[in-house]
Amino acid sequence: APKNSRLAAPRGVKLTRKRVGVSTAKVRWRKVTGAASYRIRVTAGDGRREYFTTKRSITSLAIPRVTYDDKLTISVQGLPKFGPAGKTARATSKAVKLKKAKKSKKTTKKK
């Protein structure tokens, strides 16, 4: 029987957070050849963990209920239809300081 090899870790895993408005984080990654779906693990600084699963066609995920003082570690791995889970890629984000929303300054030149 052929040996099942693990899928490669997703490349280009990036985590972005909004510093104003709604507290969400977004993680993106590149497709992994052979992945039927992806598993995303979100670990907060206090140890809380949440797991999400996406279809193979989805390579980004908005993570709800993130507070600004949370340090986040995001792990993404490809899951094949059969066989062992793929290798994991990680991204981390420090807690962010909440910035006040700035009013946009529109300057108009008078002639």
Brief write-up:
With 111 residues, this protein is mainly beta. It has strands at 14-17, 25-28, 37-44, 49-55, 60-63, 72-79, 88-93.
Mean pLDDT: 82
Supply Rg. 18 Å
**What amount of the residues lies in strands?**
35-45%
Our count of helices gives 0
Outline type = elongated
What is the helix/strand order? EEEEEEE
* Structural category: mainly beta
- Specify the helix fraction band: under 10%
CA-CA gap between termini: 81 Å
Adjacency order of strands in the biggest sheet: 4-3-6-7
Unreliable spans: none
Number of strands: 7
Major sheet details = 4 strands, antiparallel
Describe the SSE topology.
Blueprint: E1 14-17, E2 25-28, E3 37-44, E4 49-55, E5 60-63, E6 72-79, E7 88-93
Antiparallel strand pairs: 1-2, 2-5, 3-4, 3-6, 6-7
Describe the structure using short key phrases.
111 residues; mainly beta; 4-stranded antiparallel β-sheet; 3-stranded antiparallel β-sheet
